[in-house]
Design goal:
Blueprint (H helix, E strand, L loop, with lengths): L2 E8 L2 E7 L4 E6 L13 E3 L4 H14 L17 H11 L7 E2 H12 L6 H9 L12 E2 L12 H10 L11
Parallel strand pairs: 1-4, 5-6
Antiparallel strand pairs: 1-2, 2-3
């Protein structure tokens, strides 16, 4: 299998979109940690896939301050069952809202039938999220309210949260 790539110019820099031909398998900010870690090699540039057009329209709407529906996109992030559970919980965080790593860890533990779950393990799964912005890892904050742990950079995390209308005075930006 070969993954196809295209680029989208956003207010926070170029984004690389990846597809398996039908579904979106990746969306990374330039120089993002773990950039392309789940891509099938080799890759080819292909700009005219329907999923890329849908994703670019979604991103246009998002960056204009609208609330496009994630359900309109066919997403297929690649990862373990544990990571898939974490990423689904990220996708469920409402636009303009935030959730702590600890809260997500509690939800993962419940879904997996475990008494508890490590916030660090959840943080590692979040850091490896292959579909940034759409699977909203930027909406996760520390229990202290600080903006920590965004693989795309804290400045970009703050930008995305401000775009969504999050009250940044209530959050701590180190």
């Amino acid at each position: 299998m070969v993954d196809m790539l295209t680029t989208y110019q956003s207010p926070i820099g170029d984004l690389t979109l990846a597809s398996n031909g039908q579904q979106l398998v990746g969306l990374w900010l330039a120089e993002q940690k773990y950039f392309g870690a789940t891509l099938e090699q080799p890759t080819i540039e292909k700009n005219d896939l329907p999923i890329f057009e849908k994703t670019k329209t979604w991103l246009d709407q998002y960056f204009c301050g609208q609330r496009p529906d994630v359900a309109n996109l066919e997403l297929a992030p690649r990862g373990s069952e544990f990571r898939q559970i974490v990423w689904q919980l990220l996708a469920d965080i409402p636009y303009g809202k935030v959730m702590t790593y600890g809260h997500i860890a509690q939800k993962v533990a419940t879904q997996m039938g475990k008494p508890s779950m490590s916030s660090q393990a959840v943080g590692a799964a979040i850091a490896h999220n292959p579909i940034s912005i759409i699977i909203a890892c930027h909406r996760v904050i520390a229990s202290t309210g600080s903006l920590t742990g965004y693989a795309g950079g804290i400045e970009n995390k703050a930008y995305l949260l401000r775009l969504e209308g999050v009250d940044m005075k209530r959050l701590y930006v180190p």
